[in-house]
Amino acid sequence: MTNFPPIRRAAVLGAGVMGAQIAAHLANAGVDCDLLDLDRDLAVRGLQRLTELKPSPLFEEAALFRIRPGGFDRDLARVAEADWVIEAIVEDLEAKRALWKRVEPHLRPGAVASTNTSGIPIAAIAAALGAEARRAFMGTHFFNPPRYMRLLELIPGPETDPQLLERIRQFAERRLGKGVVVAHDTPNFIANRLGTYATQVTIAEMRARGLSVDAVDAITGPAMGHPKSATFRTLDLVGLDTYVHVAGNVRRQAADEDERRAFEVDPVVLAMVERGWLGEKAGQGFYRRRKDASGATVIETLDLDTMEYRPQEKPRFASVGAALKAEDAVARARALLGGGDEAAAFAWAVTRRLLAYAARRLPEIAGDVASVDRAMRWGFNWELGPFELWDALGFEETAARMEAEGERLPDWIAAMRAQGATSFYRTAADGSRECYYPGRGYGPLPGGPGFPAPAVLRRERAVWRAPDATLVDLGEGVAALFLHGAKDAIGPETAALYHRALDEAERDWRGLVLAATGENFCVGANLMLILMAAQAGAWDQVERAVRELQGVNQRAKRFPKPVVAAVHGLVLGGGAELLMAAPAAQAAAESYIGLVEVGAGVIPAGGGVKERWVRALAGVPAGAALDLNPLVQWVFETIALARVSTSAAEARQLGYLRPEDGVSMSRERLLEDARRRVVFLDEQGWVPRATPPVPVAGREGKAQILLAVDEMWRGGRISDHDRLIARRLAHVLCGGDVPAGTLVTEERILELEREAFLSLCGEPKTQERMRHLLQTGKPLRN
User: Fold this and answer.
1) Averaged over 29-38, what is the pLDDT?
2) Is the pLDDT assigned to residue 458 strictly greater than 90?
3) CA atoms of 651 and 283, how far apart (whole Å)
4) Could you point out which of 281, 488, 560, 780 has its C-alpha 20 to 30 Å from the C-alpha of 703?
5) Sign of the four-CA dihedral 485, 486, 488, 491
6) Burial grade of 53 (CB within 10 A; 0-12, 13-18, 19 or more)
């Protein structure tokens, strides 16, 4: 990998929705940035909007201080300080060309210049620039919102320096956490071209088969490997006017009549735009919400034949049900498309047309199948890209079936079949993965092989497997325990399997990574099992489960070899306790961490209260005079209010991550970074931290907390049961009934946690909260 000069400063031109959020994400990544608009006031307003957007585009508000607002009128010369200049103004060719003519004299030698556009030809914009600037110019299509949408399409112009393109690719992947694909300079590039086509054929097949909006969304959501918003909820979120514009962009630029016809928008969609039924932003689209006579929210669906709204329906199809029960994306696709009902026939018709179209357009829009698949997975959140799906269904069988049903396949597919190829992807002789490049044959995946995905490691490098966890070989003498309990929760055997992994790590490995294979690291304990045991009065069982979690966490904390928790997504309750007990951590930037047990009517009991207090004291110099009360009140509020970080950066502020814990901007690099951290700690001569007794706030601290609690209770802001939970939490956090400043062992605080947890589990109102949370997914205030 080439070592390019670092990008230390950027300039974003345009402080609108996209420009300001691109600047925010650069700031998230630690890059100082100028944000310029027509004048400074517009740029300041763009910054202000960043603090109002939900979800926030910022990891933490402190990132705003990395962004310096300014105006084109007075501050354009600041561009000369930037290593990367990103223009993100209105989608208008002439406006972009005019701005770049003004910017060009200020570009520093070696700087990269790019335009953020979803479809304007890069060559047409670059034509306004001189030869040197054209060499540094490219398209950078950030998907919206930039913090949360992983895809970044890089589009070189005809004269773009390949080294500068590679510099941005590496920077975007490593520092911005982006999934980068290189697209050809064609209408709508890769993801929007195929995504829009998929919507076009979905609507066409729906109309031809007389299916309803509800039916299509039931089929084209998770059962098809797509997001829950499926087809029409997605269109409502995007905006029908935006969709018509994107489809029109391809139609206007298409080189042949067949392509122009493929992107003609259905008349019913055009009629909806004419009526102003644009989706969420207009209050109605394919769906609308209204209040019924009782004040309850009712969701209605548009009947496309009558253009009237009717109550939402929930159609059921056998093939959809079978797909939703399948274990993985490949099994889901086979279950849905192999069914014998109306939904399966519809899904196959859409899939057949999409696969054939992707194959025909591939040489035009990209250089390889992997770039297309990645664009659809990262940009549209599909589980499988079109060529991955084709492989899953069987390369030759699917090609033959499509041809038999009248689909035209391109010459490069015929060449593959003639060569005896059996898939778009294959494993090379050295074990690396390869994909197919039309006209070239098989070659390494673009951007390099990367670190194997958790699913691949679990399948190909398992040391042992169990229902709740798998131990794998990460390489370089490091093992990883992958948690995969039901619904990302702690399973009945999780603690025992963690002990088993620690046993083997102590004997055979340099260290251990604790990770997970699901969408989230861990959402906490299995609440259903706790509720069932509590209702049955099986208190020994509940206490044993709590002791096991506390015990394995304490063992990990004091382990003689490095243990690194590699976390991502939701890290809640018991999951946060697993994280905090690990002596080191590597967190994905998008990690949402918190002790949320009060929502279920209990307090943390796997060491969470203890660890949160120990961490709060960690920054206090030894022997320093300290008033513990403000500190204990802050920790109490964090737990009692179930505060969850909105990012790994905020998790540091809340004390869930240490200052020295690592953050991976890209989740795909999380395991690699965690392994590297284990190796580093081992090479440095790992010594576990000492766990001496800690001072507690005692009776005096508890009294101050309870004064505030009782004031809230008397004011009606918390219920009787909230008050009871708060009193139990305060007792544990303050070390029990002891004088302020008493030194208390970690084991004593753990004992207090267990006592409070068991006591609260026996409360009828706690059990009501647990039942409600299980049934609705929402906390109950009783």
Assistant:
1) 97
2) no
3) 35
4) 780
5) negative
6) middle
Tokens found for residue 94: 């002439």
Angle at which helices 40-50 and 17-28 pack, to 10 degrees?
A: 70
Has residue 534 got a pLDDT over 80? Answer: yes
Pairing of strands 308-311, 694-695: unpaired
Does the bond joining 621 to the residue before it have cis omega, within 30 degrees of 0? no
0.70 exceeded by pTM: yes
Contact present, 404 and 398 (Cβ < 8 Å): no
pLDDT band, residue 624 (cuts 50/70/90):
low
Which residue, 84, 120, 79, 71, is CA-closest to 101? 79
pLDDT of residue 400: 96
Tokens coding 752? 């207090």
55-69, 76-90, 283-297, 763-777: least confidently modelled range: 283-297
**For 143, which DSSP code?**
P
Question: What is the widest separation between alpha-carbon atoms in the chain?
Answer: 84
| Residue 761 structure tokens | 């589990």
H or E, element range at 510:
none
pLDDT value of residue 292? 84
Amino acid type, 12: V
In Å, how far are 166, 202, 203, 390 from 340, measured between CA atoms? 47, 19, 21, 19
For the record, the structure tokens of 342 come out as 């109306």
Asked, as a colleague might, if the bond just before 55 is cis with ω within 30 of 0, I would say yes
Report d(CA 375, CA 382) in Å as an integer.
9
For the segment 709-762, what is each residue's pLDDT rounded down to a tens digit?
999 999 999 999 999 999 999 999 999 999 999 999 999 999 999 999 999 999
Closest Cα to residue 389, out of 226, 241, 169, 273?
226
Structure tokens at 500: 């088993």
CA angle 295, 300, 301 (to 5 degrees): 175
Tell me the residue length of the chain: 782
Mean pLDDT across 400-411: 96
Task: Kindly compute the dihedral angle of the four CA atoms of residues 389, 391, 396, 401, in this order, to the nearest 10 degrees.
Answer: -10
| Gyration radius (Cα) of the chain, Å | 28
The two tokens of residue 346 are 């519809």
Q: What is the pLDDT of residues 668-699, one digit of tens each?
A: 899 999 999 999 999 999 999 999 999 999 99
For 6, counting Cβ atoms within 10 Å of its Cβ (0-12 exposed, 13-18 middle, 19+ buried), the class is exposed
- What is the average pLDDT across 455-461? 84
- The strand order across the sheet containing 32-37 reads 67-71, 32-37, 9-13, 84-87, 112-115, 137-142, 151-156, 179-182
H or E, element range at 135? helix 131-135
Taking the mean position of all CA atoms in its chain, how far away is CA 349?
31
Number of Cβ within 10 Å of residue 370's Cβ equals: 25
Least confident of 62-66, 426-430, 617-621: 617-621
- Residue pair 335/323 in contact (Cβ under 8 Å)? The answer is yes
Q: Among candidates 302, 336, 342, 308, which has minimal Cα distance to 320?
A: 336
Reduce the secondary structure of 460-471 to three states and give it as a string: HCEEEECCCEEE
Residue 737 Cα to chain centre, angstroms:
44
From residue 473, alpha-carbon distances to 437, 504, 671, 781 in Å are: 31, 12, 12, 45
β-strands 67-71, 32-37: how paired? parallel
| CB count in 10 Å sphere of residue 256 | 8
Return d(Cα 22, Cα 648) in angstroms, integer.
Answer: 19
Q: Who's near 409: CB < 8 A, 6+ residues apart?
A: 356, 359, 360, 399, 402, 403
Over the range 707-735, which residues count as b (16 or more CB within 10 Å of their CB) and which as e?
Answer: eebeeebeeeebeebbbbbbebbbbbbbb
Q: Which residues pair with 569 in a beta bridge?
A: 591
pLDDT-based confidence at 388, cuts 50/70/90? very high
Sign of CA dihedral 283, 287, 289, 293: positive
